[in-house]
Amino acid sequence: MSGSANALRDNDTRLIALGRDISAAQWAQPSLCTEWTNHEVLAHLVIGYGVAFSAVATSMLRHRGRFDAANTELARDLAVRRGPGQLLDELVALARRPRGIGRLFPKRLLLGDHVIHELDITYALGNESAVPVSTVVAVLNTQVRVPNPFVPAAARARGLNLLATDTNWARKADGPAVAGQAAHLASVLAGRPWALRHLSGDGVAVLSTRM
């Protein structure tokens, strides 16, 4: 099993345990992923592990090829049909044996997706990140090095000198500096402007224009 696969497995185990302690009222609250409630974010994670290719294709046809709109529809529909407890149980099973697109999606990108969406829930609830810093560093490395057609984090990071203040991680570049906690950096690079307030440096203004 690869390092990314191990990290994803360990992170999912922790994420599922964290999810068991979230109340029904908290699941119903808006997440930092503006299209979805926390409940719908959880549904999205289940979809990423188990949705059939045909379901994605059908939804994209309805939305004239727009993946984001299809992705939003699939998550909302699943959240209507399954409660958070059911979705957590399904996530347990799918983490062990993914189906559909979950079998082919690169593990390092799945890890990033799961971490960022956990932060969407955690920060929306007013809590601090519970993701191990080493895991966030793995996500940051993927964000700045691996082009992602769904989340243009590498483009947002281009030319910026990034520094994590809570761990030994930096991405050197010739442009202006951006400093902050690793989880806040990862959240912003994933397109969440909420975390900009927690960053410092001349590059924050540049980064804010790339949201």
UniProtKB/TrEMBL annotation:
Q: Which domain of life is it from?
A: Bacteria
Query: Any coiled-coil ranges, and where?
Result: none
Please list the residue ranges annotated as the Mycothiol-dependent maleylpyruvate isomerase metal-binding domain: 9-96
Q: What are this entry's molecular-function GO terms?
A: metal ion binding
Pfam family membership, one: MDMPI_N
User: Can you name this protein?
Assistant: Mycothiol-dependent maleylpyruvate isomerase metal-binding domain-containing protein
Lineage, please? Answer: Bacteria, Bacillati, Actinomycetota, Actinomycetes, Mycobacteriales
